[in-house]
Model the fold of this input.
Amino acid sequence: QVQLVESGGGLVQAGGSLRLSCAASRNIFSFNAMGWYRQAPGKQRELVAVITGIGRTNYADSVKGRFTIPRDNTKNTVYLQMNILKPVHTAVYYCSASDSVDHYDYWGQGTPLTVSS
Done:
């Protein structure tokens, strides 16, 4: 059973930066893709960023130029680097991983982020 463990959430002021971590129990290059989702209060879960096994990245339009999804294969960890944060970024952030091409098979427990104005 694959485990994904997120960390790094918390409270940050608007304009600040934060990096979330997602440690996987399996070689991250073995996944078809890994992604970060978020769910804000009262809203549906939405995709924020994804990185494929070969390193291709894609971002939601709302975070392009502001967030990146680097990874460290020596630590089997994927990150979400978030810069110039705004209160609208407040949400629970989830790490996900897929062996499939059309859905995510594994999910972390989520880590909350609150951005204060």
